[in-house]
Amino acid sequence: MSDIDTSQFLIKTEPYYRPVGNEVEQYAAAYDVRMPVMLKGPTGCGKSRFVEYMAWKLQRPLITVACNEDMTASDLIGRFLLDINGTKWQDGPLTVAARIGAICYLDEVVEARQDTTVVIHPLTDHRRQLPLEKKGELVNAHPDFQVVISYNPGYQSMMKDLKQSTKQRFGAMSFDYPTTDTEVEIVSHEAGVDLKTAERLVQVAQRSRNLKGHGLDEGMSTRLLVYAGQLIAKNIAPQAACQMALVEPLTDDPDMRDTLQAAVSTFFPEVSDSSKDKVA
After folding, report:
1. What is the pLDDT of residues 9-62, one digit of tens each?
2. What is the pLDDT of residues 78-120, one digit of tens each?
3. Which among 214, 114, 120, 118 is positioned nearest to 157, based on CA atoms?
4. Structure pTM?
5. φ, ψ for residue 107 (rounded to 5)?
6. DSSP 278
7. Edge-to-edge order in the sheet of strand 62-66
8. What is the rounded distance in angstroms from the CA atom of residue 50 to the CA atom of residue 65?
9. Which InterPro entries would you find in this protein's record (predicted)?
């Protein structure tokens, strides 16, 4: 029996999530059969928020791991640590999730080395087991345990991709940026701005997304639009807010920054004049 306080991993309040299809029903069905789930989509499109929402809806603990290229298998499953009494085993987040029946969410899993991600294999097939070889223990996953992974297909390469032996252990769901009306609603709600301002921000983002592969690796995400809206809600001039939240994070290329700022000026043309009036 685990003595871990599972309540610390529960989502206490309902996260705001606006369904765009039948993804909620699909995920719930997958969880009912404890199917591992893979979420694919561009950065900032709502994958992580969706996982949080489903953990809340299903009333399951959620343990999130932000994967990176320096992460080792021990970072996931655990290691022996030195303390005043000698050595002590410390479970990693994957092991904790397996013991308590949490949803273990591996965010941007392709960032981790392939020799690290293979440790999830025995947990994502009929065995549902996690061998702790250094400890000499075989952890049988709690009946409520589930693995969820996410990644951005746009950042894939031969060096950063999932093995087929990993991919084919998961059901997959594809995400994308919402339709215009839905994205406007999301930005307005999350940022606390009026619908007109949210609509203009979405129009700027759509211009940038058309530049993907033509100077930009990725267009402006819904997340960045919320950041810009939050600045505007704090009385930052829209052009300045967009410069900070939308343009500067996206590129270091001066010409591309000018192109994006021109798109901002197209949809917020009155800002420079009104801001001068305020100063005066």
Report:
1. 999 999 999 999 999 999 999 999 999 999 999 999 999 999 999 999 999 999
2. 999 998 888 999 999 999 999 999 999 999 998 888 888 899 9
3. 114
4. 0.89
5. -80, 135
6. H
7. 62-66, 103-107, 146-151, 37-40, 171-174
8. 15
9. ATPase_dyneun-rel_AAA, CbbQ/NirQ/NorQ/GpvN, CbbQ_C, P-loop_NTPase
Q: What angle do CA 103, 43, 222 make, to 5 degrees?
A: 105
Residues 178-230: tens digit of each pLDDT: 999 999 999 999 999 999 999 999 999 999 999 988 888 889 999 999 999 99
Angular region, 275: left φ>0, alpha ψ -120 to 50, beta rest = alpha
Name which of 52, 44, 42, 43 is nearest 17 in CA terms: 52
User: Which two structure tokens, joined as six digits, stand for 137?
Assistant: 């223990």
Instruction: Decide: 256 and 216 in contact? Cβ < 8 Å.
Output: yes
**222-243 burial by CB neighbour count: b if 16+ within 10 A, else e?**
bbbbbbbbbbbeeebbbbbbbb
> Tell me, what amino acid is at 31?
Y
Around Cβ 62, how many Cβ atoms within 10 Å? 19
